[in-house]
Amino acid sequence: MSNIEKFEMKLSIEKSKDGRRGFRFKRETLSPDIEDKYLRKEEPKLPQMSEIDVVRHFTRLSKLNFSIDTHFYPLGSCTMKYNPKVNEDTANLEGFASLHPESLEECAQGILEIIYDAKNRFCEICAMDDATLWPAAGAQSELCGILIARKYFEAKNDCRSEIIVPDSAHGTNPATATMAGFKTINMKSNNEGEIDIDTLKKTLSPKTAVLMLTIPNTLGVFESRIEEIVKHCHNNGTLVYMDGANMNALIGLVKPGDFGVDLMHLNLHKTFSTPHGGGGPGSGAILVKKHLSDFLPIPIVEKNEDRYILNENKPKTIGRIKSNFTNTGVLLKAYTYLLMHGAKELREVSQNAIINANYVKSKLEKIYPAYAKRYCMHECVLTPPKEMMDKGIKTLDIAKRLLDYGFHAPTVYFPLVVHEAIMIEPTETENKETLDEFIETMIKIYNEAKENPQFIKDAPCDMPVKRIDEVKAAREPNLRWL
Amino acid sequence: MFISNTKEERNEMLKEIGVSSFEEIISSIPKKFLNPRFNLPEALNEMEAYNKMKELSAKNKIVKSFVGGGIYERYVPSVVKHIIERGEFLTAYTPYQAEASQGTLQAIYEYQSLMSNLYGMDYSNASMYDGSTALAEAIKACVSISNKTRILYSSLINPKHIDVVKTYFANSKNYEFVAIAHKDGQMDITELREMIDDKTACVVVSNPNYIGIIEDIEHINRTAKEKNVLSVCYADPVSLGILKTPGGAGFDFAIGEGQSLGLPLSYGGPYLGIFTCRKEHLRKMPGRICGMSVDKDGKRGFVLTIQAREQHIRREKAPSNICSNQALCALSVTVYLTLLGKEGLKELSIINHNLANYAYKKFRSNGIKPKFNKPFFNEFVIETDTDPLELRKELVEKYNIDPGIELSRVGNEFKDTMLVSFTETKKEEDIDKLVKAISESITVRK
Predict the structure, then answer these.
(1) C-alpha distances in angstroms, B6 versus A437, B229, B322, B383?
(2) Quick one: A14 exposed, middle or buried, by C-beta within 10 A (0-12, 13-18, 19+)?
(3) Which secondary structure element, helix H or strand E, spans residue A287, and what is its range?
(4) Does B99 touch chain A (CB under 8 A)?
């Protein structure tokens, strides 16, 4: 680590000096010609810095981050694969970047063609019939999907009020159900981390609108009885929603539509390689079978002979879910990735993702017991060994020590059903040497714990900051400069 | 395509895993589903993919545009583009591991500071998807706080935003959305006062409103408060370089579309939903929040905080399912505002307003009537006396000018009108050309 991280990082406002400027629009001073009662009374407290100060401030900040470009980032369920650089260039092309969302259709034929083609490709990859690309993220996709389900039942005059969510699901699933006006029914999975068919049968009721299912689930396990699950749901008139956040395990290998799922979402920022940007923007897609097509959000991109058009005349639609299409710039990156992947290349993605995860699992489970004993899909869930726990070392401590060694921590304490979970998703783009280094480091931490457990509990010691006081942050909120 | 391991390495790894083939690993997947046929085009290499995208981008037509309506063309300083393309920002995840994410976290803290200062509010979250979803979440928060079901909104809010709000309420009949009429382009406050009843959760206004006019937000908020009703103000952040802040006017929630702060138009996104609130509503605020704290040695550090509200902890009881923010867009806006500083923002704000003023006078002197005679910020409505969509198509075709947006969505009275909008990217000569083109076309049509 270079000494740049050792600088005391000041806030931009603390570097501000009256009269300093970083950017100028006009030379002369101007005053507005607006009645006083409409004007602001106090100036906003914005920093005043020169251009180089601004550049240095943010460049130094960037150096305090771990990222895919600089570090192995095995964050389970997040699919931190390499983000191809060409995606950035294509998304920034003038013809895309400078197009206003209220542009006339005839000015937007290129982007509409992309949206139309991307939709078809996603449907082909997943064996679904129709799609919308408007959701801005995975969570918004879920909301869109569940609103579609709601509208479907309303149209049939079938009042259903409940959604079944397995206990291994992402927290977004139950929150989504509530947002869309449903009651969440939590369902326990069995010891193998799969859905228990008897429990499912008992949980299904005439009120069950949807089963929300993550495939492979958050334990990295494929629901081997998927056909039965779907059959029982459909016999009950219940729709099967697939949370496709983990599609990186299946892409090119199987098509979810073949299992019988009625609707599903894709996270373009996971499976289709768009960068996470420090927490967003993402981009999502909802894919549906024919019987749900009428309910998709407007506008619909359609092809009329050689021309692409936006159709808003869809009486059964759930409505509009975002005012201006989608995070189009993100979609463009995903589309560029799609162009570079045919069927063969997509299959290589899931195959390598699965092999990498199983390799890490097979090497580490001798020390860190795996929750599910069988082979995993694209990620595995491990736990700290008893010897470490006995010394008071928790998953969090291991995660923090990994940072000292230059590895981003895996996802920790998720899924909730596993005590002290360590969830590792290496992705297909990492090579064996990196995985070996990571494995060796995990073993090293295990050995360190034997000799000096306190040291692990104090980790990290070699990062820009040590562990942050989270209780203070929550109890005495300091969320802005004053 | 982007896979690192060689065939030999893969075989070695399979051996280590203890299987003779990949198929053995995935034996839990029913065989009949494996290896389906795909009807997909052959993969392109990077150069081919880039060229294909370039071809497709050329099928879009970029013209001199006076189209606004809440989304504005801006000059984006080079610094902004270079900073946000840094891989350390671009390819990082949500800052769960605070010690490895101080860069992203501090940037979010600075973003929250800039937004709360700009809007004159107590707190800002780390951002939402866009202005429309931020509006929907703010109204949801009001409904949750007040436990009431009637929402009063200005009829001059972006109609697409109201669509999104209604979708977020699942178009449920349990909620009543009532549009408050306008009087000469501003919210009719007498009507507002009459419409507030016991069931009213909140009053929602946009400033400037969708047709560009500045509202008397202080009076609107006062009217809401007289009847103990919550208030939400949607405001364009650039206008706040000079206009009265929602916080100053006393609003409970203030939101906005952050695209206006130098994000590319990019046909709809990624943009930025600004979300700010007064102190007492902090625990009802959706989305990520970053806080300043100290580390074990007492050194300043940043961390995601007040997470007890969020879906990963509260699950079905969370106020929203949102689990990301538009972090990179928030960073972009933070760099933009830091570079501009308070002087730069004020300058930008005034330039936008002054150009619109110039255009207003120019239209009038050329016999084209603005529809209202009320103060506006950087856009206003003109009467076209003809189908505005046809006018747009003609001007795009003939002059490479897109003059503005038709407003039929707002209501029938706006049938033959157009919203024209002005930013620092246009010169006075451009405006002269616009006015000339419109007036010629209208004259011919008459």
Answers:
(1) 17, 65, 39, 67
(2) exposed
(3) strand A284-288
(4) yes
Angstrom distances, CA of residue A456 to CA of A122, A367, A393, A408, B98:
45, 17, 7, 16, 17
Mean pLDDT (chain A, rounded)? 95
Option in B164, B297, B324 nearest A282 (CB): B324
Q: What's the mean pLDDT in B275-291?
A: 96
- Residue by residue, DSSP assigns A93-104 as -HHHHT--TT--
Q: Kindly report whether the peptide bond that precedes residue B270 is cis, defined as omega within 30 degrees of 0.
A: yes
Whole-angstrom distance, CA of residue A171 vs CA of residue A140: 13
Q: Could you write out the DSSP letters of every residue in B168-198?
A: HTTT-TTSEEEEEPEETTEE-HHHHHHH--T
Question: Would you state the pLDDT for residue A7?
Answer: 60
Contact A474 B305 (CB under 8 A): yes
- What residues in B contact A432, CB-CB < 8 Å? 4-5, 9, 12-13
A50 with A22: CB under 8 angstroms?
Answer: yes
CA angle B177, B140, B290 (to 5 degrees): 150
User: Any chain B CB within 8 A of the CB of A59?
Assistant: yes
- Top residue of B125, B243, B316 to mutate, by most chain A CBs within 10 Å, is B316
DSSP E strand stretches across B24-160: 64-65, 123-124, 150-154
Reference B103, options A465, A49, A282; nearest CA is A465
B28 contacts: CB under 8 Å, gap ≥ 6: A221, A222, A224, A374, A375
pLDDT band at B134 (very low <50, low <70, confident <90, very high): very high
Q: How far apart are the first and last CA of chain A?
A: 33
Angle between helices B327-365 and B102-119 (to 10 degrees): 30
Q: What is the pLDDT of residue A3?
A: 47
> How many other CB atoms are found less than 10 A from the CB of residue A159?
10
- Domain boundaries along the sequence of chain B: 64-74+343-445, 78-335
What CATH architecture does domain B64-74+343-445 belong to? Alpha-Beta Complex (3.90)
What pLDDT, on a 0 to 100 scale, did the predictor assign at position A27? 75
Write down the pLDDT at residue A6: 57
Residues (pLDDT < 50) of chain A are: 1-3
| Number of C-beta neighbours around residue A342 at 10 A | 17
Task: Calculate the alpha carbon distances from A264 to A122, A134, A231, B53, B425 in Å.
Answer: 11, 14, 17, 28, 42
257-296 of B, contacting A, C-beta below 8 A? 264-271, 282, 288-296
Q: Does A41 touch chain B (CB under 8 A)?
A: yes
Percent of chain B with pLDDT over 90: 93
What is the C-alpha separation between B227 and B199, in angstroms, rounded? 11
What CATH number was assigned to the domain covering residues B78-335?
3.40.640.10
* Residue A208 near residue A185 (C-beta atoms within 8 A): yes
Q: Which CATH number fits domain A349-463: 3.90.1150.10, 1.20.1540.10, 1.20.140.10, 3.30.450.40?
A: 3.90.1150.10
* Chain A contact for B373 (CB, 8 A cutoff): no
In chain A, domain spans: 3-62, 87-339, 349-463
Half-sphere exposure of A412 (CA within 13 A, CB side): 16
Mean pLDDT over B200-227 rounds to 98
Q: Which fold has domain A87-339?
A: Aspartate Aminotransferase; domain 2 (3.40.640)
User: Are B292 and A478 inside 8 Å of each other by CB?
Assistant: yes
Amino acid A8: pLDDT: 65
Alpha carbons A222 and B34: distance in angstroms, whole number: 13
C-alpha span between A342 and B120 (Å, rounded) = 51
Do A277 and B89 count as a contact with CB atoms less than 8 A apart?
Answer: yes
Dihedrals φ, ψ of A145, to 5°? -65, -45
Spatial distance between the Cα atoms of A434 and A424, rounded to a whole number of angstroms: 14
Sign, Cα dihedral of A149, A153, A154, A160:
negative
